[in-house]
Amino acid sequence: MLTGLAHRPRELERVSATDRFADYCLWDYEPPTKPLGKLRSASLLWQSLAATGANPRIADACDLLRRELGPFRTVWGVKQFADRYAYEFYFYDYERLSRTVSVGRVLKALRPLVDCPLRYPDERPYFMFSLDLDNRTVEQAQRLEEVSIYIGNPGSSVSSGICYNYSERGLRLDNFYFFFDAAREMEHIRAKIACSAHLDLPGFPMDQILWPELRNCGVVVVANKKHNDGVYFSRINVDQLILFLKRTGYPGSLIDFVETNRGDLDHLLYDVGIDYVKTANGLEIVKSAFYGLL
């Protein structure tokens, strides 16, 4: 029987000599400070689940994923909407058709918690997929009805990807992602953000989207989605993470944890993002998220 610790975080995990450090694209990076003995990214996840009121079964799902895929193979994301939280898990296998991490393998591993009727063909060349879990999924429905499938976009001068939602209704185009080097391509980033079906130009205050405090990250990703656009800042430091959590309104207990343990979290690089729309009252953030490695 699967069990979890209700309403309080799991025990903190510490970095060992064999730990891996990778961003939300599962690309490895060198820690900016000596990591040994400091907190793993999973420790931040456990605190986040407790602070956002996640059902203990969400943490149980993490156990199932670690058991099936091994450690440091799953990217987690905590997503905040206006009235709820969701927890996204990303799975990469850049071998594509020669992959070992497939949709079927992950869904089978999660079957003790949620049922999913989907069967996506292994003959299709996706390099990544993701799924969302929330309290309703694991408490009431116990059924996962959709996964997101990501494929490449060859021939473009800008690194990019295409995302489809996959359900029993079939495939539905969801969004496009474009990757830019923050140090070398800031003008291209600005131009891509401005080339939007959702913004009124000229004169829109770009700093409300392209936050000056986060521009010195490693990579900026600009996304065009069905109902809004998004921007992601990859490989920021712990102080920038604290700023992001405060500005987007995450629970105070989570912010207190990060601030209190800043010295135990400064070896990690973080990835964050916002989805936004233009309203009569200005820019509205409809979703925010931060990411780590399980």
Secondary structure layout plus pairing:
Layout lengths: L40 H11 L4 H14 L4 E7 L4 E8 L10 H7 L18 E6 L1 H7 L5 E6 L7 E8 L2 E12 L4 H9 L24 E7 L3 E8 L1 H10 L4 H9 L1 H4 L4 E10 L2 E12 L1
Antiparallel strand pairs: 1-2, 1-10, 2-3, 3-4, 4-5, 5-6, 6-7, 7-8, 8-9, 9-10
Helix pairs in contact: 1-7, 6-7
Q: List how many beta strands DSSP finds.
A: 10
Low-pLDDT ranges = 1-6
Alpha-carbon distance between the two ends: 22 Å
What is the helix content?
A: 10-25%
> What is the string of SSEs from the N terminus onward?
HHEEHEHEEEHEEHHHEE
Number of domains: 1
Tally of helical runs: 8
Category from helices, strands and their pairing: alpha+beta
Give an overview in words:
With 294 residues, this protein is an alpha+beta fold. The chain has one domain (41-293). The chain is built from eight helices and ten strands. The protein has helices spanning 41-51, 56-69, 103-109, 135-141, 186-194, 238-247, 252-260, 262-265, and strands spanning 74-80, 85-92, 128-133, 147-152, 160-167, 170-181, 219-225, 229-236, 270-279, 282-293. It has a ten-stranded antiparallel barrel with strand order 1-2-3-4-5-6-7-8-9-10, surrounded by five helices. Strand 9 (270-279) and strand 10 (282-293) form a beta hairpin. Helix 1 (41-51) runs antiparallel to helix 7 and helix 6 (238-247) runs antiparallel to helix 7 (252-260). The two termini are 22 Å apart. 35% of the residues are buried. The model is unreliable at 1-6 (pLDDT under 50).
Short description:
The chain has eight helices and ten strands. It is an alpha+beta fold and 294 residues long.
